[in-house]
Amino acid sequence: MIRNTLCAMAFAAVCAPAAAQDLAFSSDDTEICLSGGNAPDFWKTCIGQAASRCMTLSPSGDTTSGMNGCLALELDWWDAKLNTEYKRLMSEITEFDNAAGFSVADGLRDMQRAWIGYRDAICGFEAAQYGTGTLGSTITYDCLMQKTAEQALYLQQTAFVF
Q1: What is the secondary structure of 67-109 as a DSSP string?
Q2: Rounded distance, CA 18 to CA 70, Å?
Q3: Tell me, what's the pLDDT at 159?
Q4: CB 134 within 8 A of CB 12
Q5: Which of 31, 49, 54, 91 is 20 to 30 A distant from 77 in Cα terms?
Q6: CATH number for 108
Q7: Helix, strand or coil for residue 14?
Q8: Considering the domain boundaries, does residue 162 fall inside one?
C-alpha cells in the first residue's frame, strides 16, 4: 500500500530505491533515541536518524536512489510501528465498545483513514513544488516518513481511558 502511494506521488522515475543489500540500514539509532528522553516533543529529534545514518554509511547513500532507499526503509519501519500501535489502540477501544454499546472504534478508523488522505495530500503538494525533477521523489519519501512517524508516535502516546 505505502509503496504504491510513494510511486504515484513521486512524479519521478525513481520509484524503486537502491537495492536493500546496498544500504546499511538499522533502526537501532531511532529505537535508542525513542527510549532515551522524556522532555516534551523530544521524540521529534528521533525521526529520520536511521535514514540519515544509512545515507552516511551506505556507498550509494549520497545518490538519489540511495537517499530514497534509506528514507523508504525508515518509512517502512515507522509504518510497521504505526500499524502495531493502531492495532493496540483498536483492541483497547473494541473492548470498551463491546461493553458500552456504542462505537469509539469507528471514530478511530475514520480518523486514520482521513489522516492517510491528509498525509498523502501534504506530501503530494511538497513534491509537486519540485516538478518532475528527481528531488521530488526524495521529498516525497522524506515527507511520508516524517508524517508516518508522527502518526505512529501519536497513536503510541494515545491511551484509551474508559
Answers
A1: HHHHHHHHHHHHHHHHHHHHHHHHHHHHHHHHHHSS-SHHHHH
A2: 8
A3: 74
A4: yes
A5: 91
A6: 1.20.1270.180
A7: coil
A8: no
The Cα 60–Cα 73 span in angstroms is 14
**Domain count across the chain:** 1
Answer whether residue 54 is part of any domain: yes
User: According to the model, what pLDDT value does residue 40 have?
Assistant: 65
Q: Which residue has the cell 554509511?
A: 57
Residues of the chain with pLDDT below 70 are 1-21, 37-40, 98-101, 160-162
- Owning domain of residue 107: 2-9+18-157
CB 138 within 8 A of CB 64: yes
Could you tell me the pTM of the whole model? 0.82
